[in-house]
Amino acid sequence: MEKQANGVRVMLVDDERDFLDSMARALSRRGFAVTTATNGMEALEICENERFDVAVIDIRMPVLDGQALFNAIRMRHAGLPVIILTGHGTIQQAFEFSKRGLFDYLTKPCEVEALAARILDAHRNRGKTALADAPDILAEPIRALIVDDEAEFLDSISRVLSRRGFSVATAHDAAEALDRLEGRTFDVVLADVRMPGVDGPSLLTIIKKRHPQVEVILLTGHASIGSAVVGLKHGAFDYLLKSQEIDDLIAKLRAAAAQSRRAREEERRLKEAEPTGT
Asked: What is the pTM of this model?
């Protein structure tokens, strides 16, 4: 086991400190390189700076729970296999997670050897479930809608993105953005958090109800952990500062657009697979 596990990087996330420490030590003794986090937000922050081969996460956690963390990982780090390890699981929950690409769903208490074996399986099979046409999914220009009440910023960012090959539309408030979403298909919406009337998080909620396959990135000059958590829980792809480097912003927009197009492609395939009436 130790030789097989050598170099396999595991993110282990659980708010029960005693369990987290003991399981981390047990996996480390078997050759895994283990990094720990006590909640979903902490795990996401670590994942932005480090690469992992497998994530093992609990469901019930403070700040950002396992379900929200799983959704964020699927959006930001689509190729990272996720194993849920929980003492609060249900059959229905396991079924729903499996449909959305979860590698495995384990219940506590779980023997270390059993968990280690599933981590190795996840590592060996990483990427095998990706869509076959994923490399070409961004062959067409990314369709981005930028929403901000600051006209100067709106004009500046739209010109930058257009020069980078994006197909850009703009809106000065949520109402205008929703009108544009009804008129054409977008891959990603980049929305300011603070806007008069309907703000960014409220716009996010409306978009996710009406256009669930459109990804939304919230952009702000006034970041807070609280608003970031709310955004992620309501389905935001990411939460970024306006001071973000443009190359980093573009990378996030491309990742969000790829996620949106994968979702549309999967929906198309499911519809084609449905039996037709006689």
From this structure: 0.56
Name the helix (H) or strand (E) containing 39.
none
pLDDT at 131: 36
Digit-coded pLDDT (tens) for 94-138:
656 666 678 888 888 888 999 999 999 888 876 544 433 344 677
The parent domain of residue 12 ranges over 2-124
Q: Kindly state the DSSP code that residue 239 receives in the 8-state scheme.
A: E
What local confidence, expressed as pLDDT, does residue 166 receive? 94
Length of the chain as a residue count: 278
**CATH classification of the domain holding 184:** 3.40.50.2300
Q: Where are the beta strands (DSSP E) in 66-171?
A: 82-86, 104-107, 143-147, 167-171
The answer to whether residue 129 sits within a structural domain is: no
Specify if 130 maps to a domain: no
Distance, CA of 257 to CA of 277 (rounded, Å): 34
Q: What mean pLDDT do residues 213-241 have? A: 76
Q: How many domains does the chain have?
A: 2
Distances (CA, A) of 170 to 10, 117, 150, 176, 191: 41, 49, 11, 9, 10
